[in-house]
Automatic annotation (TrEMBL), chain A:
<feature type="transmembrane region" description="Helical">
    <location>
        <begin position="144"/>
        <end position="164"/>
    </location>
</feature>
<feature type="transmembrane region" description="Helical">
    <location>
        <begin position="116"/>
        <end position="138"/>
    </location>
</feature>
<protein>
    <submittedName>
        <fullName>YeeE/YedE family protein</fullName>
    </submittedName>
</protein>
<keyword id="KW-0812">Transmembrane</keyword>
<dbReference type="InterPro" id="IPR046513">
    <property type="entry name" value="DUF6691"/>
</dbReference>
<keyword id="KW-1133">Transmembrane helix</keyword>
<dbReference type="Pfam" id="PF20398">
    <property type="entry name" value="DUF6691"/>
</dbReference>
<feature type="transmembrane region" description="Helical">
    <location>
        <begin position="40"/>
        <end position="60"/>
    </location>
</feature>
<keyword id="KW-0472">Membrane</keyword>
Automatic annotation (TrEMBL), chain B:
<keyword id="KW-0813">Transport</keyword>
<feature type="transmembrane region" description="Helical">
    <location>
        <begin position="64"/>
        <end position="85"/>
    </location>
</feature>
<dbReference type="InterPro" id="IPR007272">
    <property type="entry name" value="Sulf_transp_TsuA/YedE"/>
</dbReference>
<feature type="transmembrane region" description="Helical">
    <location>
        <begin position="162"/>
        <end position="187"/>
    </location>
</feature>
<feature type="transmembrane region" description="Helical">
    <location>
        <begin position="12"/>
        <end position="30"/>
    </location>
</feature>
<dbReference type="Pfam" id="PF04143">
    <property type="entry name" value="Sulf_transp"/>
</dbReference>
<comment type="similarity">
    <text>Belongs to the TsuA/YedE (TC 9.B.102) family.</text>
</comment>
<keyword id="KW-1133">Transmembrane helix</keyword>
<keyword id="KW-0997">Cell inner membrane</keyword>
Length: 170, 189
């Protein structure tokens, strides 16, 4: 068995920043003052209202979904995806620019085994807590203060993933 | 029925779903941002405790928009709770209500069961598993998968990405396995 480490291929630690986390790419060459970020705060407020009024932050609704007892969640996610698809298609077709006049760039995702293993692990957590990351924030705002612990634990889970990342199969 | 009463009702899926979908083009138009929420947890790690881990050594300030967005989610949910919350308990499938009664869950006053998600419950085995272990799985799993329901299921599928479809199928598979095969045992604790 060859144990020389020098012959081992360099593990690419940058692949993830580019491909697994498209959100971590900031293509914008524009330099805006920090307070421009308030537009995202307002977008977040609208989204938070939607999450609550759609009842998708409800643990009960998530249990219904995983027991096939209600169409509600499937309707919400399905119609959201349909509208999102149409939106992205229109942006691509008409080469629509951002409000600051920049071309919109979308990033393809590359497959890696993490999407299967991580996907299943997240699915387990989703069924237990009845919340994905967005609803965790919404539940806290909505007054379920104990969910702060769930959110802190999710941050800890993210951190541990970062710690173990090079040892995990991807 | 006045406006506040009208808007306080739960919004049906065919209203709320398409509006959630509009978040995708909205964020692209506002500044070329790909919709995704779990990344905010990574940015929090990068900002608070990078601990020399390469995964957290990047310029998180460039991604500050994502933290503004999740702060907005907290604020938006707060506004609903104080100004137009639904006064009625969540309307659920009676089968689920029956099943949950067996585990002693019968309080439907809030969107999340207060009998499970409360501070004192943290000291019980059931509460610890559901809040601490469950939360850990959400954070670890979403990052390992490279996205959550928003980044993969909504943004990724909107952009017709096959890896996102695979991830979404695995989210659902994990949820079905847990909710039907494992969770009943946890709820009985």
């Amino acid at each position: 068995m060859n144990t020389t480490i020098s012959t081992r291929q360099e593990t690419n630690t940058d692949f993830e920043v580019r491909s697994l986390d498209a959100v971590c790419i900031n293509e914008s060459t524009l330099k805006h003052p920090w307070w421009y970020n308030f537009k995202y705060l307002f977008a977040g407020i609208l989204f938070g209202i939607l999450l609550v009024k759609a009842e998708v932050i409800s643990w009960f609704r998530i249990q219904e979904m995983f027991r096939l007892q209600s169409f509600h969640m499937y309707g919400v996610i399905g119609s959201a995806v349909m509208v999102g698809m149409i939106g992205v298609w229109l942006i691509k077709k008409f080469k629509i620019k951002t409000i600051h006049g920049e071309p919109i760039v979308l990033h393809p995702k590359t497959f890696n085994k993490g999407q299967v293993y991580g996907g299943l692990i997240f699915g387990f957590g989703w069924a237990i807590t009845g919340a994905c990351p967005g609803p965790l924030f919404a539940l806290i705002g909505n007054g379920a203060t104990a969910v702060i612990v769930v959110l802190l634990s999710a941050i800890a889970g993210t951190w541990v993933y970062g710690l173990l990342r090079d040892k995990l199969p991807h | 029925m006045n406006f506040i009463e009208w808007i306080s009702q739960p919004w049906p899926w065919y209203i709320s779903g398409p509006l959630i979908g509009l978040t995708v083009p909205l964020l692209l138009l506002l500044g070329n941002k790909s919709f995704g929420i779990s990344s905010s947890l990574r940015h929090i790690c990068a900002a608070c405790l990078p601990a020399n881990i390469s995964f957290f050594k990047y310029d998180w300030k460039k991604e500050a928009w994502n933290l503004f967005f999740v702060a907005g989610i907290v604020a938006g949910a707060f506004l609903v709770a104080y100004f137009f919350a639904d006064p009625q308990p969540v309307q659920l499938n009676p089968q689920l209500v029956d099943e949950l009664k067996g585990y002693g869950i019968d309080d439907y006053s809030k969107l999340a069961p207060v009998q499970i998600f409360n501070w004192p419950a943290l000291l019980t085995a059931k509460g610890f598993i559901m809040m601490v272990a469950g939360g850990f799985l959400v954070g670890f799993g979403t990052r390992y998968a490279g996205g959550c329901t928003s980044g993969h299921a909504i943004m990724g599928l909107s952009n017709l990405q096959l890896p996102s479809l695979i991830a979404t199928i695995c989210f659902m598979a994990g949820g079905f396995i847990m909710a039907n095969l494992v969770l009943p045992f946890i709820l009985q604790l």
